[in-house]
Amino acid sequence: xxxxQDDIAAIRTLKEHHGSAWDAIDPESVxxxxxxxxxxxxxxxxxxxxxxxxxxxxxxxADSSVFTQSLGVWHGFIGQQKLISIKKHLKTTNKRYxxxxxxxxxxxxxxxxxxxxxxxxxxxxxxxxxxxxxxxxRQADARELDLLFTRLDAARAAGxxxxxxxxxxxxxxxxxxxxxxxxxxxxxxxxxxATYLLAxxxxxAGACAIQIENQVSDEKQCGHQDGKVTVPHEDFVAKLNAxxxxxxxxxxxxxxIVARTDSLGAGLTQKLAVSHRPGDLGDQYNxxxxxxxxxxxxxxxxxxxxSRDGRLxxxxxxxxxxYQFRPGTGEERCVLDCITSLRNGADLLWIETEKPHxxxxxxxxxxxxxAIPNAKLVYNNSPSFNWTLxxxxxxxxxxxxxGADVSAYDRAELMSPDYDDTELGRLADEKIRSFQKDxxxxxxxxxxxxxxxxxxxAALSTDDLAKxxxxxxxxxxxVRGVQRREIxxxxxxxxxxxxxxxxxxxxxxxxxxxxxxxxAGGAHNTMNQFG
Length: 531
Known about the structure:
Pyrv/PenolPyrv_kinase-like_dom; alpha/beta; isocitrate lyase activity; Isocitrase
C-alpha cells in the first residue's frame, strides 16, 4: 500500500463511521488533497529539509564531487519557477536548494523602498519571504499533482489500464518542489536575544539553515562593501548559541548553522576582546590589532592600553571610536574565526572573499581542515565579482607562467570583446565553467550559491522587452521574445491561469458541488489556445 492508497482506505472507514451525512465525501478526492498538501506547517518543512541537508553533507564528506547549489530569489514566484525549471530540465531537485539573500530583501522587499545591504530593512521581512517561498513551492506541488490526477481520470475514463497504472506510480513516487532554504539573518539584528527571536520566526516559517555573520549588527555592511566591522569571538559564539537554542526549542534538532566570517575584508573592530590569560581566544583576537608601544608617561586622557609581553601597547583608535587591525592579517583572522565557529556549534562555514580564486580559498581551508578535517564551506559565487575580468587575469598569469607568448594581450584591457574568441578567452571561460567543480574538489566547498542572480535577470529581461515593445517592434517584441519561446520551450507560465491555480480550483469545485460546479476552464477559456 502507498500513502495515497492508505489515505483512501482511512477516509473510506471514516466515511462509513459517519454514515449518510458524509455521502458527498469522496475518499479519493480527500487523498488527492492530502497529497497536494503534504507539509502542514513550516516546522514540518524545516524538519524535512534539515534531513536533506544533513544527508547531502554526509555524502559530500564521502565524495566531494557531489556538491550542492542554489540561486538567490526575492519572491515566491521566482523560487517556484526555478524549481519547476530544475525538475523539467534535470528531472530531480536533488542537491539543489534556494538561497534567501538579505541583500535582495533590503533592495526589493522593504517598506522603506530600496535600501543598501546594511540591516536597515524590517527584520519581519525575512521570515515573511521564507513563508512566501514555501507557499509557492507547495502550490507548485499542488498544480503538478493536479495535472497528474486529471490525466489519471482521463486514462481511467478511456479504459487504458496501462496508462492509469503508470500515472498512479508517478503520483506514488512524486518528488516535491520543497527544498532546503539557506536563509540570511545578517548579523542577527541586535543582541543574542533578538537573534534568537528572529531565528525562531525563520524556523517556524520553514528555514532549516540559518546563515549568520560576525559583523556588528548596527554597523553591518554588505560583504562586498568597505567599512566592515567585526565582533570578538565570544560575542559571535553567543549568537551561534542563540540560533541553536531556537532550533532545539522548536524540535528541529538537526538544523544547520552557517557561520560567516567577513574578516578578510573587515579591517575594524568595535571593541576589544576580553582576555583572561595569554593565548586565550580574546588574546588571540586582540593580537591582530594595530598597536603602538608607549610608556606609562605617554598615556593620554581616555587612552586604552594593553599589556603585551611586559610592554604597554595602545591600539590605534579611529575618530569613529573603532579600532583597526594590522593590514595583511585578514586570512589569519578568517582561519581563527572558522575554527572557533566550528568548535562552538556551527555546521558550515562561509568565507566572504574579494575575488573568486580557488587557491586563495583552498589556502585558508587547508589550515582550517588541519584542525577540523570535515570543515565545509558555503561559497558566494557573487555577482559583485567581475568574473570575466578575474578569470582572464588568472588565465593571462597562467599562460605567462607557462612561458606562452602573451604579447597579443593587454592585461589592463582584458574585458575587451576582442579577446572573446582567443586562447586566453576560452581558457578563462573554461575556468569559470569548472569553478564550482574545482572549488568543491580542492577548497572544501560543499554549497555553491549566487546571492542575487534573479535581481539581475529580472532587470535584463525587462530591458529586452521594454526596448522592443516601446520601440519599433511593438507587440512582436513580446510575442517573439516571450510568448513564442514559452510555447516552444514548454514554459508552464504560458498557461498563466493554470499556473495561478485556476484548474485546481475547478477540481475543488467539483469535489464540493459535483455536477453543479461552475467551472472557469470550459470551452471558452482562451487558455485552451495553448493546447
